[in-house]
Amino acid sequence: MKSESALQELAFQALDAFQIEIPSWGFANTGTRFGKFVQAAAASTLEEKFSDAGQVHKLTGVTPTLALHVLWDLPNSVDDVDTVRALEHKFGVAAGSINPNLFQDQEYKFGSLCNPSDEIRERAIAHMLDSVTIARKLGSRDVSLWLPDGSNYPGTQSIRKRIAWLEDALQRTHKALGPNQRLLVEYKPFEPAFYHTDIADWGMSAHLARAAGPQARVLVDTGHHYATQNIEQIVAWLLHLDMLGGFHFNDRRYADDDLTLGSIDPYQIFRIFHEIHLSGREALGQIAFMIDQSHNLKGKMEAMVQTVCAGQELWLKAALVDREQLASLQEKCELVAAEELFRGAFWTDVRPLVKEWRLSRGLPEDPLAALAKSGYVQRISAERGARMAATVTSYA
Ligand code: RM4
Ligand code: MN
Ligand code: MN
Predict the structure, then answer these.
(1) DSSP state for residue 108 in the 8-state scheme
(2) Which end of the chain is more exposed for a tag (fewer CB within 10 A), N or C?
């Protein structure tokens, strides 16, 4: 048993090391393919997204960066960099990962980087290169690619040719990276494509990242796995191979549901965090923690603050595993004792420790309550609500 002060020291160190990036799209009105439920408080300009992100950072102290989606956030591409810089300054939050957008334009109906047309592939590569330039100008380390490409009907596309096109596109993108930049390659088994997806799993991502060059890594989105997949094992492999670049955290019940981190299976996130704690503090610097959720039923500000807090709690629970003791039990194959030690950390109520940490760092002890008390959501609802009434809510 650790003394109370040793436990507090361990907890504070773990919490000091935890930061998580929030996504600009988490503050905007989004929907399902059936329609949107518009919220008065949703952000519809980049300034509003930065304002919301600044507020989340003020309340939690652990979200210093905002992931940006090119097209949604920088519709004029590189020309919008100065606007972003001014907003960073105004709201005290820096631009984080830069996410290319290869899924909106009509040209991409049959694929972007994997489109059979040379011309369309070139256009998609140009967008990748613009994204690298944007990231470089903003001082963002990561260009984070999620590729929607795939096909819906067997026999209608050459899977093999598309692999080669992807290798080429990612190599060319990698060449443009600055010395401190990285290319993250995300995978997803299906959706929007329903027959084959060009980057469907971690093996494909790892291969493509390796083929691209030494600054490319895999991005694991927790929602992008089949229901029974052992995600912590994938994480352990990627750590072993030094190929883990980061995470998009969310939870899922069925597929890519974008549910709140830890709301369905908190033990899964705990097990992932355990693998990361095992790799030590140095490895952590190379692993980007990001939230990728967009809620259309919950309030967006509340959802974001709640998610950050859930992430901190699970991170701390995993930090409490006595890893030395666990290793010795594993060696002796003392299965029940090992499992009880592991499970015991998971079941520890760490909320009092997180509160102590927040108070010691000059942060509100309960960020959700502080958000409610601040009146921020009421203020933005009043300011933004009227304009929202004019927004299109149907996809038909
Ligand atoms: C995808 C994926 C990407 C995100 C897009 C908008 O499902 O998770 O990371 O950028 O959605
Ligand atoms: Mn994602
Ligand atoms: Mn997703």
Answers:
(1) G
(2) C
Taking residues 136-151, what's their average pLDDT?
98
For residue 184, how far is its CA from the centre of ligand 3 (angstroms)? 14
How far, in Å, CA of 129 to CA of 232, rounded? Answer: 32
- Identify whether 364 is preceded by a cis peptide bond (ω within 30 of 0): no
Residue among 263, 153, 247 at smallest CA distance from 202: 247
Determine the distance from the C-alpha atom of residue 17 to the mean position of all C-alpha atoms in its chain, rounded to a whole number: 17
pLDDT score for 395? 45
Q: HEC states along 291-324? A: ECCCCCCCCHHHHHHHHHHHHHHHHHHHHCCCHH
- Residue of 173, 183, 125 whose CA lies nearest to 149: 125
Ligand 1 centroid vs 143 CA: distance in angstroms? 13
Determine the atom of ligand 1 nearest the C-alpha atom of 191. Answer: 7
Contacts of 82 (CB under 8 A, 6+ apart): none
pLDDT in tens, 7-46: 999 999 999 999 999 999 999 998 888 888 899 999 999 9
Instruction: For residue 173, give the nearest of 201, 199, 134, 200 by alpha carbon.
Output: 134
Contact indicator for 334, 290 with CB cutoff of 8 Å: no
- For the stretch 163-182, pLDDT in tens is 999 999 999 999 999 999 99
Decide: 68 and 131 in contact? Cβ < 8 Å: no
Query: 76: CA distance to ligand 3 center in Å?
Result: 24
